[in-house]
């Protein structure tokens, strides 16, 4: 494992920890934003949101993008379509996945490419049952693919336990 991989894994773990510290609003796990290239106008951000009480995700913003929207991918007939949605319900205690091919955040009109190993600031706005809005600021790691469940680090099988076939 290279130092770069260890640092990337650590950045995923730190971002998840920082988001969990704001857990009075919602717990955020596995957050990541997809890398982009020069000239690419948009990219996605993904995470698992678990609200402690019923909440609605009503907005998102990022200084890295001109526009940040909540989107869904939906199969209509035999065509997969992506569209912005005004809000996303988060039932209390039930994780809601923002993932490729489903609900996700779209960062549009990117101001610069999202580069591997960096983070992108994203603010999420939630509305509670009483109508009060609360903001959660995140530093989301940028990667070409989702972090592994072990925080980006691969567990190695002990030498004495290798299988021979």
UniProtKB/TrEMBL annotation:
Disordered: annotated segments: 143-165
Biased composition annotated in UniProt, kind: Basic and acidic residues: 156-165
Signal sequence range: 1-21
InterPro entries noted in UniProt: LpqE-like, Lxx211020-like, PCuAC_sf
Superkingdom: Bacteria
Record keywords: Signal
A Pfam short name: PCuAC
PANTHER family: BLR7088 PROTEIN, COPPER CHAPERONE PCU(A)C
Name of the protein described by the UniProt record: Copper chaperone PCu(A)C
Species name: Ramlibacter tataouinensis (strain ATCC BAA-407 / DSM 14655 / LMG 21543 / TTB310)
């Amino acid at each position: 494992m290279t130092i770069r991989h260890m640092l990337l894994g650590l950045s995923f773990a730190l971002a998840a920890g920082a988001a969990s510290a704001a857990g009075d609003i919602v717990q955020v796990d596995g957050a990541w934003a997809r890398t982009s290239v020069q000239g690419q106008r948009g990219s996605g951000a993904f995470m698992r949101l678990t609200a402690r009480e019923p909440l609605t995700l009503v907005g998102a913003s990022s200084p890295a993008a001109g526009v940040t929207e909540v989107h869904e991918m939906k199969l209509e007939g035999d065509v997969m379509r992506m569209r912005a949605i005004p809000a996303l319900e988060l039932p209390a205690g039930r994780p809601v996945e923002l993932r490729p091919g489903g609900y996700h955040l779209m960062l549009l009109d990117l101001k610069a490419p999202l580069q591997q190993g960096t983070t992108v600031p994203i603010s999420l706005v939630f509305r509670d049952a009483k109508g009060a809005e609360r903001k959660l600021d995140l530093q989301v790691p940028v990667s070409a693919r989702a972090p592994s469940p072990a925080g980006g680090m691969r567990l190695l099988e002990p030498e004495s336990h290798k299988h021979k076939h």
